[in-house]
Write a structure and sequence with these properties.
This is Integral membrane protein. The protein is mainly α. The chain is about 85% helix and about 0% strand. The protein has one domain. Helix 2 runs antiparallel to helix 4 and helix 2 packs antiparallel against helix 6. About 30% of the residues are buried.
Length: about 140
């Protein structure tokens, strides 16, 4: 997703709307990734040189997590505690992905690039969500 697309998503004077949009975008991207892992774990496992069973397990987790984030995004005013939990989970996912790449996984070049890109994407969602949460809290003072 380009910076232009992100700017268009965030273009609002209402921090609450911005927060809900970033949560919804996270839910869609995460859920789509999970569905892909579930639907084509074999081919993706071969492409990335990663165990397809691991991709299946991650797919289930990502679909469920994406649904939970999506549910949070539908709330008129997502609770700060829930948003913070999503931010922290996203940061943990990014960190664990990079640690796994360095210590446990031996993926193909495509797999290594994918792991780094998805870790950066998830960390980006965390930053956007945290910034929107801070803006919402600042506007309510």
């Amino acid at each position: 997703m380009s910076a232009t697309h992100l700017a268009a998503l965030a273009r609002t004077t209402e921090p609450q709307t911005m927060l809900r949009r970033f949560l919804a975008l996270d839910a869609v991207v995460t859920g789509t990734n999970g569905v892909a892992y579930l639907a084509v774990s074999g081919p993706l496992g071969r492409l990335f040189d990663v165990d397809s069973t691991l991709l299946l397990v991650l797919g289930v987790f990502l679909v469920l997590y994406g649904a939970a984030v999506g549910l949070l995004a539908t709330r008129p005013s997502p609770p700060a505690l829930g948003v913070r939990a999503v931010v922290e989970a996203n940061l943990a996912w990014a960190a664990v992905s990079l640690v796994a790449l360095g210590l446990w996984l031996s993926p193909s070049t495509a797999g290594a690039v994918w792991i780094v890109l998805q870790a950066l994407t998830v960390a980006g969602f965390a930053a956007l969500q945290y910034g929107a949460l801070r803006a919402r809290q600042g506007s309510s003072e």
